[in-house]
Amino acid sequence: MALPNASEVAESLQVDSKSSDMVKSDKKFSYFLISPVFSVIVGKETPKTYLLQKALLRQDSDVLAIDVGGGFKEEKEQKIVLEDEDSGLFGYFIEYMYLTGWIAEEGVDRNEDYIILARLYALGERLQAKDFQRAALNKFHRSFAKASLSDQGICDLLKIACVELLERVDEDPLRARVFWYAASRLTQLRDYDYFLKLLEARPHLGKSLVLLAEISSKSQPQHHQEPLPPKFVPESIY
What we know:
- This protein is mostly helical and 238 residues long.
- The chain contains 13 helices and three strands.
- Helix 3 (54-60) runs antiparallel to helix 4, helix 7 (112-127) runs antiparallel to helix 8 and helix 9 packs antiparallel against helix 10 (173-183).
């Protein structure tokens, strides 16, 4: 994994987005509730089945759009199986589809929420749900610089950044911010067993953090937040 310089980090945090004055859909919310219902089975050991509108699945995820409209088995059976996903995390995506919800609200109440947001960001990447992923990134960045994470919390974020996020030609904005935070706290991490195991499993991680530590105090990554477009047009009788 290549270490970005300060300018590359700042540039990478400019997340692709639609213009803020664009509406994501030209349909009212009530329109989506009359579309066919799909069974979405999430999880493996104790799976949960959600009954979700086809039109919402198609609007909010490029991956699920193929499942519900690509002419494959999933469309014919009106059933999607996501056994590798966590049903608890997927619940946040359901809330986003119907209500937008917590992920678009201001503020982070607990340090543990940063772990959840990082996992939701990774979920958005797997589902190719770009606006959901952007919402998770925006909420993460609003207050992360002021976060006071435990050593375990920092290592949990590093693991998500290294394992769950795909490699990219340009550095991932959430990974860049997590690396910056960890690099600024190397002194407290260097004797922590969990951290040492991460370094052992990923030899390049240590080198990247050490190099980044040299610039982290002067080059904190910046993130320009673009507001999410409204998901629906207002209800009307016309």
